[in-house]
Amino acid sequence: MTHKRENWSSNFGFIMAAASSAIGLGNLWKFPYMTGMNGGAIFLIIYLVFIILLGIPILLSEMAIGRNTQLNPLGAYKKINKKWSFVGAIGILCSFIILSYYSVIGGWVIKYIVSFISGSKIKDSFTYFENFVSQPLEPILWHLLFMIITVSIVTFGISKGIERISKIFLPALLFLILIVAIKSLSLPNSNEGLKFFIVPNFKGINSFNDFLNICLHAMGQVFFSLSLGMGALITYGSYLSKDTNLKKSAIIIPLLDTLFAILAGLAILPAVFAFGYKPQSGPGLIFQVLPAVFNSMNFGIIFGFMFFLVVFFAAITSSISLLEVVASFCIDTFKWSRRKSTFLPAFIMFLIGTFASLSFGPLKNTTLLNMNVFDIATFLSDKILMPLGGLFMCLFVGYVWGIKNISNEITNNGKLSFRLEPVFSILIKYIAPALILIIFITTLF
Ligand code: TRP
User: Fold this and answer.
1) Banded pLDDT at 170 (limits 50, 70, 90)
2) Is the beta carbon of 26 within 6 A of some atom in ligand 1?
3) Structural domain contains residue 6
4) Distance of CA 247 to the CA centre of its chain
5) Which of 3, 125, 203, 251 is the most exposed place for a label (fewest CB within 10 A)?
6) What gap in Å lies between CA 326 and CA 137, rounded to an integer?
7) Which uninterrupted H or E stretch holds 377?
8) How far apart are the C-alpha atoms of 315 and 105, rounded to whole Å?
9) Is 133 a pocket residue for ligand 1 (Cβ < 6 Å)?
10) Whether 54 contacts 436, CB under 8 Å
11) Which residues of 3-30 are buried (b: 16+ CB within 10 A; e: fewer)?
12) Is there an atom of ligand 1 within 6 Å of 254 CB?
């Protein structure tokens, strides 16, 4: 029996869905603390440069592979060249790992929304956070809830589930984050945070090594934030109809994603400075520092609630893209129903995530090579599988599938122009692989 492959109902729907896959915890949780820890404006500038050098060409290539083959990542590589199927397999494995810990953090976000709804400010937010994440059971229940919500959207399929939810969530997200950013910028003493974010200050960079380190973090952030390197966009691209303009999508999606990262920076950094906190506090920034900020603000409960609601919307539309990668693989390969293809993998991810969650509490000290389960999961996905997936994809497109073939796909067989083809070719064949190889090797050691 052949299954009729689903399609996005329109190119607009696809762009909204792909943009909402990109915009997620990466923008709202990771980007502000990464910027905080890596020197502010300088990080921002390097990040923007890498979006252009790496992000756009890789995004374009992933979408082209997907649309050309109309298959999930593994099937897609296999169809073009059997020997390269392993790249697709890396991607599917990587989605498994990312979603299992992503949904743990998604669960924390729901917990914070509920805390704000219950009308009480979060007092003593540092201990509050520590106490919450170190409990064995409660975080797992929130993690389960987050996973259930993800599954229920993905089981509805492409245009009815993913596309519809993205079309509603993305504009809502933009609206909410704008309000929080405006509020944050209008706080007394917010200037300092704004300056930190947009005016480069070279004082913190004392050596070439410091600079290299910032570059490495910026590159990793580009991958994570644009959902690159593991086939999410191959999957989304595979539901595209043949007459869409891929180049346009490859510009609009990074633009929207970057817009959100910058708005998140504007919403968070000025507020952090205005209340006298330091932005270098790392991953706890939005869970520990921000509630303290909301706590000392008029209408803090409302702003806190709105902020975490934004984060939740963003996280859920990204987690569905992660689950969709695995689901599409099961649908194509095992010919399972969509329902089974989402439930079964999600259940396994939930179980793995349970260990990730416990590693903030009872399993904190159960480590391998000095990393607990959560650390291992993020290490494997962010530092190993994603860069490897991206690197192999560039090599695959540049040297195996070939620039001529991908160019045909991008121009819809010559119907559209592609004046930047020579630039694209240099980026994919030389610059992107070289840069990724540097991240990969340096971060590993
Ligand atoms: N880009 C998302 C974020 O910023 C996370 C994400 C979703 C992702 N799908 C992905 C990351 C695929 C890597 C690969 O939160």
Assistant:
1) confident
2) yes
3) no
4) 21
5) 203
6) 27
7) helix 373-378
8) 9
9) no
10) yes
11) eeebbbeebebbbbbbbbbbbbbbbbbb
12) no
Distance from Cα 150 to the centre of ligand 1, integer Å: 14
| Residues 232/325, Cβ–Cβ less than 8 Å | yes
Helix (H, G, I), strand (E, B) or coil at 226: coil
Query: Would residue 55 count as lying in a domain?
Result: yes
Q: Which helix (H) or strand (E) holds 74?
A: helix 73-80
**Alpha carbon distance 205, 251 (integer Å):** 32
Task: Indicate whether 193 belongs to any domain.
Answer: yes
CATH number, position 311: 1.10.4160
Q: Look over the chain and give the mean of its residue pLDDT values, rounded to a whole number.
A: 88
Cα of 270 to ligand 1 centre, how many Å? 26
**Mutation to probe ligand 1, out of 31, 34, 72, 98 (largest number of atoms < 8 A from CB):** 98
pLDDT at 2 over 60: no
CA of 354 to the centre of ligand 1 (A): 20
pLDDT at 106: 95
Local structure of residue 84 (DSSP, 8 states)? G
Torsion of CA 358, 364, 369, 373, to 10 degrees: 10
Q: What is the pLDDT of residue 394?
A: 95
The parent domain of residue 136 ranges over: 11-444
Structural domains counted in the chain = 1
Residue 4 lies in a domain: no
**CB of 258 closer than 6 A to ligand 1?**
no
Closest Cα to atom 9 of ligand 1: 227
Residue 88 tokens, joined = 């697709």
Q: Which of 93, 99, 235, 318 to mutate to test the pocket of ligand 1 (most atoms within 8 A of CB)?
A: 318
pLDDT digit string (tens) for 297-311?
Answer: 788 888 888 889 889
User: Other CB atoms closer than 10 Å to residue 417's CB: what's the count?
Assistant: 9
Nearest 5 degrees, angle CA 429-CA 433-CA 435?
130
Residue ranges of the alpha helices (H) in 230-274?
232-238, 246-274
One-letter amino acid at 1 equals: M
Q: Does 25 sit in the ligand 1 pocket, CB within 6 Å?
A: yes
**The predicted structure's pLDDT at residue 281:** 73
Segment 410-417 shows an average pLDDT of 90
